[in-house]
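tmp note - Amidase
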Amino acid sequence: MKDYKQFDGLGLAELIQKREVKPEEVREMAIREIEQKNGKLNAVINKIYDHPQEGDFVQSQGIFAGVPVLTKDISQELKGHPISSGSKVLANFIADHDSEFVRQIRDAGVSIIGQTNVPEFALMGVTEPAYYGPSRNPWNTDYTPGGSSGGSAAAVASGMVPIAGANDGGGSIRIPAAFCGLFGLKPTRGRTPIGPNRGRVWQGASVDHILSRSVRDSAAMLDQYRYDRASAFIAPPFNGSYLTASETPISSPLKIAFTTNSPIGTKVDHECKEAVHKTMKLLESMGHHIIEKEAPIDGKKLASSYMMLYFAEVASTLTALEDVLGRKVEFKDVEPATWILGLLGKAVSAEELLTSLTFWDKAAIQMESFHDTYDLYITPTTANPPLRIGELDQTPFEKMLIRIVGGLRLGGILKKSGFVDQLANKSLEKTPFTQLANLTGQPAMTLPMHITKDGLPCGIQVMARRGREDLLLQLAGQLENTESWINVKENPIY
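out:
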C-alpha cells in the first residue's frame, strides 16, 4: 500500500471495508512510518507492536475498523502495558485495566499500536521530559511540537498515523495542533469518557479526545463516545451527528467576536496576530459579521485561578504516587520543576482552591451571557509560533533556586515571595489563550490557517457556547475547503 499517508482515518477505514486493502497491510504501513521517522521525532515511546498483548489486534465493525492509532502516555491506560505519564518514577508501572476512553475508541474499531511522548505528568506546553527526551516538530526538528500532547501531534503531522489520542487540561490538544498544523478540538466538559477509576481530571478542566489531520475524523470520533457513568460531569445533549455537522455548510451569517490581545497583558507575536486577521477577512468575505471585542473575563485573575489548580493537582499527584511506590516521594524521583510545583501545591489552602473554583463558575456564566450576543469567539491559539527545543528551560539562577527550595521544602516561603505571579506569567505568556475554555468547560478548537515566514504553522482558536461542538465543526468543515487551510502534507518529514 504505497499511498497510506494520503488517507485520513475514515479514508483508510473505507478502503478496508471495501476490501481494497487488508487491515494487516494498513497496520504494517503505520509501523513502517514509525520505524522510519521516530528516530528523528521521538514521538512514540512505547511500541505496542513490539510486545503485543491479547486484544491488541482485535478488530470490530466500527466506523474506524482497522485504522492504526496511537494513544497518549497519560490517562489513556492500556491493560498490560506501561503508563508512565512521562516520568521515570513510573517507567515500570503496568496498567491493570483499559481506560474508558481506550475502551470506547476500540469499540469504534481502531487498532492501537503504541503510546506517545508527554512532558512529565503532562505539565508543560512543550514535550521535553527528562526521562524520554524531547519530541520534535515535523516542520522543523529544531522546534517543539508543543505539549502536552506533543508526541501525538508529531506522530499525526508526520504521517505515522491519521489519528492519535490526546487530552487537554489547559490547551494540550490545541497547542500542539497549532504548532504542527493539525485540527484540534477540545470538547465540552463531560462530553468524552474519563473513567473507570476517576470521575474528573483537574477538577473537570481536562478532557480526552484526539488529534487528527482532517476535521471529519475528529467529528466522527466524537460521535462514537457513549455515556460514561464514572464521569462527574454531563455535557448538554446533542441529538445529531457531528460528522454530518462537519459536512454541512453554515447557512446563516454568524456574529463573531475576536481579539489578538493577550488576556494577561503579555506580548503576542505578529505572526499569530496575522493568522487571526487573515481569517477574519476570510470569514467576513463569507458573509459573517465580525466584531473586535474581548471576552468579559479578568484574564489575570483567570491565570491565577488556573495556577492554583495547577499547584494543587501536582501536589495531589505526588501524594497519590506514594500508594504506587509504597514510600514517600523524594526530590530525586521527579523533575525539579515538578517538585517545586508540588511544594507550591502543599502551600495552597483549601480556601484558595475553593475561591478559584468559584471563579471558574463565574467565568462560565459570563461567557454564557457573552455567547447570547456572539456565536463564536476567536483568538490566536498561542501567543507565539512554535518554540525552539529547550527555549523554556530554567535559567541557571532558577535551577539553583529550585535546588535550594526543593531541598529545604520551602514552598510556603516561595509562595509568599511573589514567585507565583512570576511563574504564572512565564508559564502562560506563550500560551495565554487556551485556559479559558478549560475552566469554563466550553468547546474550543484550533484551525491551521497560517504559515510563518520561517515555514512553521500558526493556529487560530475558536470557542463556542457549551454544547456547541456542532457549530465549531460546521465552521471548521467550511474553512478546511478553502485555500487558507494549511496542508500538513507539505511538511518536510511527512
